[in-house]
Amino acid sequence: MIRILAHPYTLLALTTLFWGGNAIAGKLAAGHVSPMLLTLIRWTFACLFMAPFALSHVKADWPVVRERFVTLFLLGACGFTLFNASLYTALNYTTAINVTIEQSSMPLIVFVLNFLLFRTGVTAFQVAGFLLTFVGVALTASHGDLTTLLTLSLNRGDALMLFGVLVYGTYTVALRYKPNLSWQSTIFCLSVAALIAAIPFALAEYALGATNLPDAQGLTAALYTAIFPALIAQSLYIKGVEAIGPNRANLFVNLVPIYGAILAVLILGETLHGYHLAALAFVIGGILLAERGGRRAV
């Protein structure tokens, strides 16, 4: 049982379950706390929760942390703050189902960047897999009408989420530059960086008069995002990437729409349209094909 729980596939499956829940929490928070303030609260709570367990590790790793501070800050600011700010803002304009399905385009970003920057080879199965995934994402972003993509007529929320996907895909590729630290130090340092980076976003939101202080529902959603998607999922994701590499690990992001769609229907009462089902079929087929290709490439 312990071996199964520690398997990279299990770690990544749990990661995507918590990330699917992140979209649900973000949707529940919409109207109950403004998105930039939610991002700031999330990483504030995350840092406070982690500090008692991580500070001793950070102290031991401090020479490396100090030397690689800029790298850690950029990883945390982009992968943690900018992505989540995009996600929580997007959920004010589009559905949780759409957001979770659109996240499945991350493997495309990872494959392309790895090829362009590092000439990482991909198999025919992986190419076919992410092309299927791309079709699923296109169906979702266009709400079942692919002609809207030709006119670049996208819902504001869907466009924001696709920008967030680009950011997180870049973060995944950049994890290869992560310094060699304990996982406790890594997550804590990235979370502190995310907290620092979230402050100017929250201040800008306040200056624009768009700040919405959290009520009980907003605060509960913020607590969920701090504990499960932030602390637990990010730790499991980093361990999964270390175990099987970014190309294969990022394919598991395609499970996010599966979990997200189920949770959105059960918890939010959102409607699952026919194009959502078609998109999910493309996503599932894509991950199966691409993962088969990933195993052959190892």
UniProtKB/TrEMBL annotation:
It comes from the Bacteria. It is found in: Cell membrane. Residues 10-140, 156-289 form the EamA domain. This is DMT family transporter. It is a multi-pass membrane protein. The chain crosses the membrane at residues 41-58, 70-91, 97-117, 124-144, 159-175, 187-209, 221-238, 250-268, 274-290. It comes from Fulvimarina uroteuthidis. Pfam families: EamA. Keywords: Cell membrane, Membrane, Transmembrane, Transmembrane helix. InterPro entries: AA-Vitamin_Transporters, EamA_dom, EmrE-like.
